[in-house]
Design goal:
242 residues, alpha+beta, TolA/TonB C-terminal domain, three-stranded antiparallel β-sheet, 6 strands
Amino acid sequence: MLPLSASAAPPLSPMQHADSPRVNRRIAIVASVVGFHVLALWALQSGLLRRAVELVIPVQVMAELIEPPQPKVEPVPPAPPVAKPEPPKPRPKPVAPPQPQPVAAPTPEPSPLAPVVPPSPPAPPAPPEPIVAAAPPAPPAPPAPPRIELPSTNAAYLSNPSPPYPPLSKRLGEQGTVTLNVFVQADGSPSQANILKSSGYERLDEVAQQTVMRWRFVPGKRAGVPEAMWVTVPIRFNIKPS
């Protein structure tokens, strides 16, 4: 189907001659539109549009394939494994040489004639030693007591007389020992005489008591200092044979 051209139009009249440029333009537009549609229909029928589409698609595919190559990113090689230090090997322990084992002596068989002695029982274990506690320190020794010297009548310078023997007691055979407890002052004089033990005869006791009260004594002393104190004095009455 061929497109229509302008020469195919009928001749214009004299009245239409003035509007011929405008009409021609309209006709050209209409003819071009119609021709475009005719060409499109023809192209569809003849397969030209399909070829154009087929040409366009490979171009896009080729454009995708022609893209510049991307730089290859090389993978970072892994770090080499760090070798772990091996632990020191234990030194072999020295092996002591085997000691000779003691050989048990053979037990002699008892003779049938020898008496069989039973084995002695084992000795009992020794008792444990007693635990002795440490002795506490000894307390300090007390101070020595002061030296005491009792009154005495043994000094020769005292000149103490012997008690007189009562004549009646002598005739009657009265004799014995009178024990007196005498309190002697610091100056050596007696102030009191008490009978601790009687002789058994009142006359002898009185004579002994009176005689001692007239005596003089060496005063008693405490740490060397004269002091009044008691002293025991025995008086004996014995009848001497004539």
